[in-house]
Specification:
Elements (H helix, E strand, L loop, with lengths): L1 H13 L4 H16 L8
Amino acid sequence: MLNWMKYNRKMMNAGKLKAERVKLFLELLAFGETLKHVNQYD
């Protein structure tokens, strides 16, 4: 999954993704930020 995310981020930055996919990918990245792991020992 990480490799897929990195590949798609690279393609988006290069301008090779379609506009609709860029929109969906950005939504997916925003959703992923809400699920960040929080270290319980900090």
